[in-house]
Amino acid sequence: MGIALDHCDLRFIFNEFKCIYVFPDLLSIFHEQEMTETVHETNGHGYLATFVGKNGRFVILRVHSHGLVTIDLQCYEEDNISQLDNLLNALETKLKALLNGNITRIKRLPALIRGAKVDRYWPTADGRLIEYDIDGVVYEEDSAYQNIKILHSQQFGNILVLNGDVNLAESDLAYTQAIMGSGKEDYAGKEVLILGGGDGGILAEVVKQKPKMITMVEISFIVIDGCKMHMRKTCGDILDNLKGDCYQVIEDCVPVLKKYVKEGRMFDYIINDLTAVPISTEPEEDSTWEFLRLILDLSIKVLHPSGKYFTQGNSVNLSEALTLYEEQLGKLSCPVDFSKEVVCVPSYLELWVFYTIWKK
């Protein structure tokens, strides 16, 4: 377990002499804890010391020249928590006394758990680290294309994670509804093509509206195998059979789309649940952008003139990537218009952009 007292943001500036002069009084607290100090050379960039104590306890004290003080306390899980709290409280009290109240802000962060059997930390699309309440791995397999995990969250239910990206939790009906048009569409008697969607959520919801036929193309049946066992609040029993009265599940969308283009096949609705808009700022060179453009171009060719194409975008904070995507829409072989909607997806802990695209 690691505990951090971090980012004590000081309004005034220390110089190197001031740091060395003030902090011996602070060091006495570490000495009382029987911790041995080592002061490190910083070449004039503030003050840096490390402290090693019993039971593997380890502290990094850093005073930055612009006035930021960080104290990182690392220890083992079995260490005495009350002692650690007392140490941090003593350091905080001493800092306030030494600096005569000239502290803008003190922030104590909760413990980071490193090396646990179950990884609780997953990044958002815009690079923020989220600690989930994950307490178990219920499924993990590797396909030829990706690592597939299904993790259990006390708050969100089971969560599908592909290659380290949180894809969908059992709590995320908002995602499924948004990528289907947010309840504004009538799928009854329609031809529907789902690209990806191995969690079965979209398929299960569209089937309820009694379409003429749904064709779902999913390249990894290992995802389907995991989800039909462990994501049943999302997919129900729809993935128990890969073919039903009004749906079929087949493999690999690119060959299928090319075949449909040659045949002149048309769909009233196409729902692309394959991948989020890439965050790369070099769409002409990024292979993910090339794949996305290929799927878009093939899909528009098999979209009925009055049909609609639904897809996810990415985090609303990734405005540059979303703008690049919208620019790509203007480069398709067939002119299109689009609209977008911002939806809160519970397990993402961020707002997500969804697109509706249609032919001009």
Automatic annotation (TrEMBL):
Entry keyword annotation includes Secreted: no
GO MF annotations in UniProt: spermine synthase activity
Catalytic activity: S-adenosyl 3-(methylsulfanyl)propylamine + spermidine = spermine + S-methyl-5'-thioadenosine + H(+)
UniProt xrefs under Pfam families: Spermine_synt_N, Spermine_synth, SpmSyn_N
Pathway: Amine and polyamine biosynthesis; spermine biosynthesis; spermine from spermidine: step 1/1
InterPro entries the record matches: PABS (IPR030374), PABS_CS (IPR030373), SAM-dependent_MTases_sf (IPR029063), Spermidine_synt_N (IPR035246), Spermidine_synt_N_sf (IPR037163), Spermine_synthase_animal (IPR015576), SpmSyn_N (IPR040900)
Family, per entry: Belongs to the spermidine/spermine synthase family.
Name of this protein: Spermine synthase
Species name: Anabas testudineus (Climbing perch)
Lineage: Eukaryota, Metazoa, Chordata, Craniata, Vertebrata
